[in-house]
Amino acid sequence: MNELELYKTQTRYISHEIRNHLSICELYSEIIKKRMEKEGIKNDSIEGAIRCIQKSLKIIGYSLIDLKSLNNFSPQKTDLKTTLETAIKMGEAYINEKNIEICKELENNITVELDENKFLACIVNIIKNAIEAIEITGKISVRSSIDDNGKAQVIISNTGKPISIDKQKEIFEEGFTTKTTGSGLGLHICKTNLALQNAKLQLDKSDEYSTEFKISIPICN
Ligand SMILES: Nc1ncnc2c1ncn2[C@@H]1O[C@H](COP(=O)(O)OP(=O)(O)OP(=O)(O)O)[C@@H](O)[C@H]1O
Ligand SMILES: [Mg+2]
After folding, report:
1. Out of 69, 109, 154, 179, which residue is the most buried by the measure of CB atoms under 10 Å away?
2. pTM reported for the whole predicted model
3. DSSP 29-87
4. Backbone phi, psi, residue 134, to 5°
5. How many Å lie between the centroid of ligand 1 and the Cα of residue 191?
6. In this predicted model, what pLDDT tens digit does every residue of 4-26 receive, in sequence order?
7. Is 134 in the pocket of ligand 1 (CB under 6 A)?
8. What is the residue with the minimal CA distance to atom 19 of ligand 1?
């Protein structure tokens, strides 16, 4: 891959991640607006601020077309439980009007060394996929613990439509998608970003009962 192609790929990956998080901001600002309307709260200042936020988000979205960036990682000691709780809160925006319960079983006192923002983005991608796999009603579970090899493990599972056996090999390939509006980049970016930080993402199983992704991360002592 020559340098120009590398930049183009990089730009597309980063744009994709930024767009995911822009849409979380858009969804949450819309939720605030609706909640205020429902509770009869009239506040010109807040309404104005929300309009500004929504406008800014649009502008950033359009600006992404020009984005070029370096492959920057800032690893830091991170409390796994706190980071996962933050990611779950962010990803919940995608539940929107579906009837989805997210269960958490997160062990205390596990510290990993990761770029926290990139890790958050990975978890959001996986939760977003889990929500998208559930048509209306279902369950998602996020568990974290230490595995038999002494690594931290995060298991994210969801009910909903499974991934067919023939497609299970392809889901981490760049551009593979079964969604009409998907770009097929989410899992590819997650796997690449985690691998660059010595962490590993894999599909553990997908059947009629659940689809389960596992992340293994070296721990910090
Ligand atoms: N939890 C899941 N349950 C069922 N299928 C899944 C799940 N996660 C991923 N998939 C399948 O893997 C494909 C690739 O996922 P990936 O996140 O890479 O791309 P995408 O979601 O299609 O698009 P986007 O780039 O917007 O994330 C999906 O299109 C879907 O078919
Ligand atoms: Mg996705």
Report:
1. 154
2. 0.83
3. HHHHHHHHHHTT---HHHHHHHHHHHHHHHHHHHHGGG--------EEEEEHHHHHHHH
4. -95, 125
5. 13
6. 888 888 888 888 898 899 899 99
7. no
8. 184
